[in-house]
UniProtKB/TrEMBL annotation:
This is Phosphoacetylglucosamine mutase. Residues 60-92, 105-182 form the Alpha-D-phosphohexomutase alpha/beta/alpha domain. Binds 1 Mg(2+) ion per subunit. It comes from Dimargaris cristalligena. Pathway: Nucleotide-sugar biosynthesis; UDP-N-acetyl-alpha-D-glucosamine biosynthesis; N-acetyl-alpha-D-glucosamine 1-phosphate from alpha-D-glucosamine 6-phosphate (route I): step 2/2. InterPro entries: A-D-PHexomutase_a/b/a-I (IPR005844), A-D-PHexomutase_a/b/a-I/II/III (IPR016055), A-D-PHexomutase_C (IPR005843), A-D-PHexomutase_C_sf (IPR036900), A-D-PHexomutase_CS (IPR016066), AMG1_II (IPR049023), AMG1_III (IPR049022), PAGM (IPR016657). Mg(2+) binds at S67, D284, D286, D288. The lineage of its organism: Eukaryota, Fungi, Fungi incertae sedis, Zoopagomycota, Kickxellomycotina. Its cofactor is Mg(2+). Keywords: Carbohydrate metabolism, Cell wall biogenesis/degradation, Isomerase, Magnesium, Metal-binding, Phosphoprotein. The active site is at S67. It catalyses: N-acetyl-alpha-D-glucosamine 1-phosphate = N-acetyl-D-glucosamine 6-phosphate.
Length: 551
């Protein structure tokens, strides 16, 4: 059956592509200034409909957010039926649709997808969407709605539902719930609170509640939604105090606050001075990233507990539980990226004795590697991550008969953990609950958690070069293939430093090349980072000032 596009083409005239803008579906979808995204969002409606038809009418999600970017930015990403990121094979289609110059080019791009993917356009399509608190959100949602209405107006069956303001992980959760007919949970925000809340209460039952957790909400969607979750759980079990929770005042989103600020600045955000007795956490603008932090009691300095620390804590707890549950055949593994601190990798391998995989930067790469373990813990150092339980692990939890009360308890706790953890994507809320459960069980302070290992001094330097596409990496970003010869030079330098490590990769979200270095002490680490950055600058036609700060 041919696709009736007359209403769609009519609607599309209202959402023309701006000339002189080239769009790329990057690591985390499209992301740029909100006013440049009208046509892109309209066209992502098309992609979601085609993808849904291709998947036999299963629900596809669309999330409008630019995460930790400044408030004027916005962005869009698609969510696949299992609640995961869009299949990477479809990313070039997103780029092609977004860049079609006019309606003729747009319909041609659509036809190409239909042919290449053998899509039966007569199949129904269902799309759900949500957005964060950005001011450009409502108008962009309007564009998306117009697209979906127009596509549904012809002979094709297109249905959709607007879920309003949501965190990114909540939308991922809802997509999975719909496509599992409720087996994963009820496909509503209340269903999400219910599922996480019930598992959390089960896990902390009988333990003394911790002191309040002060949460920096980045002045974003995390604020109203965490308030709802906390209310649902109740103060007897979870006490949170929200800071940077202003989603009304213009210009505040991610401004001097949030997980990205805290991680990159290694410092307290706005409105948190830091008291040694307090416990802090920070979310990013769409609540899919989490870091903890505190003030050291002795030297009164800022201390960060990043994604590496969270993954170490989670792996330790889960490893213990699987042992107590008698599930020796279930492999617990951890996935990190090259940005993971070397000390964390050593801790995982040597102390916890769990297998560790290094994946390319970007959540989708870690997610797929984590699926290879029975229980796969994955976190990026920047605080994005979760834990996946595969089918054999879930089955073992359901079928193992306990031979002692202790074994039964461990099995119950693992089952509750698999409910508590949002397995579709990294989720700051579910990760907060996971960390709080573990700290409650151990009755640990943040500094006790931090004592598992000490981070090696590390430094990240950005270099602006003529063409970042000239940089190609292999082995999960750890080695450069191009420009030829540069990797050998980096190796020579690194060999001169105790516990030295450095790698260079082009950013997927900014027009820069990133240099990472770590070494046995702060001075050597800074020197190594800036020497490598200087080499990159010289070899690749660096722009602006040559990085020399610590030389
Ligand atoms: C995106 C990725 C994040 C990655 C970051 C790297 C998702 C949802 N987010 O924010 O995982 O760490 O890009 O940025 O995949 P970079 O390429 O600029 O270093
Ligand atoms: Mg985010």
């Amino acid at each position: 059956m041919p696709l009736d596009l007359s209403a769609f083409i009519q609607a599309s005239f209202k959402h023309p592509k701006p000339a002189n803008v080239t769009y790329t579906y990057g690591t985390a979808g499209f992301r740029l200034r909100g006013e440049l995204l009208d046509s892109v969002i309209f066209r992502m409606g098309v992609l979601a409909v085609l993808r849904s038809k291709k998947m036999d009418g299963r629900t596809i999600g669309i999330m409008l957010t630019a995460s930790h970017n400044p408030e004027p930015d916005n962005g869009v990403k698609l969510v696949d039926p299992r609640g995961e990121m869009l299949d990477t094979q479809w990313e070039p289609y997103a780029t092609e649709l977004a860049n079609a110059a006019d309606e003729t080019a747009l319909t041609r791009a659509m036809q190409k997808i239909i042919e290449e993917k053998h899509i039966d356009v007569g199949k129904p399509a269902h799309v759900v969407f949500g957005r964060d608190t950005r001011p450009t959100g409502p108008a962009l949602i309007q564009a998306l709605t117009e697209c979906l209405e127009a596509l549904g107006g012809g002979t094709t069956k297109v249905t959709f539902q607007d879920y309003g303001i949501l965190t990114t992980p909540q939308l991922h959760y809802i997509v999975r719930c719909i496509n599992t007919q409720g087996a994963y949970g009820q496909p509503t925000v209340e269903g999400y609170y219910e599922k996480l809340g019930a598992a959390y209460k089960k896990l902390v039952q009988g333990h003394r509640r911790l002191s309040p957790l002060v949460v920096d909400c980045a002045n974003g969607v995390g604020a109203p939604k965490l308030r709802e979750l906390a209310r649902h759980i109740g103060e007897d079990h979870l006490l949170v105090r929200l800071v940077n929770a202003d989603t009304e005042t213009p210009g505040q989103l991610n401004h001097q606050c949030g997980a990205d600020f805290v991680k990159t600045q290694q410092n307290f955000p706005a409105h948190i001075e830091g008291h040694p007795k307090e416990r802090y956490a920070a979310l990013d603008g769409d609540a899919d990233r989490l870091v903890y932090f505190y003030m050291d009691e002795k030297d009164r300095t800022f201390k960060l507990l990043d994604g590496d620390k969270i993954s170490g804590l989670a792996a330790m707890f889960i490893k213990d539980l699987t042992r107590n549950a008698g599930l020796e055949n279930i492999t617990v593994g951890v996935v990190q990226t090259a940005y993971a601190n070397g000390s964390s990798t050593n801790y995982l391998k040597d102390v916890l004795q769990v297998p560790v995989t290094c994946a390319q930067t970007g959540v989708k790469h870690l997610h797929h590697e984590a699926e290879k373990y029975d229980i796969g813990v994955y976190f990026e150092a920047n605080g994005h991550g979760t834990v996946l339980f595969n089918h054999p692990a879930t089955q073992a939890l359901a079928e193992t008969r306990a031979r002692s009360p202790a074994q039964a308890e461990a099995l119950d706790q693992l089952k509750a953990l698999s409910e508590l953890i949002n397995q579709t994507v990294g989720d700051a809320f579910s990760d907060i609950l996971l960390v709080e459960v573990i700290l409650t069980h151990r009755q640990w302070s943040l500094s006790q958690w931090d004592h598992a290992y000490t981070d090696l001094p590390n430094r990240l330097v950005k270099v602006v070069v003529g063409d970042r596409a000239a940089f190609r990496t292999t082995n999960a970003d750890t080695q450069l293939v191009e420009p030829a010869g540069l990797q050998e030079k980096i190796n020579e330098l690194v060999a001169k430093y105790r516990a030295g490590r450095s790698f260079v990769r082009p950013s997927g979200t900014e027009d820069v090349v990133r240099v990472y270095a770590e070494a046995g002490n702060r001075h050597e680490c800074d020197q190594l980072a800036f020497k490598v950055a200087g080499m990159v600058f010289d070899l690749a036609g660096g722009k602006g000032e040559r990085p020399t700060e610590f030389l």
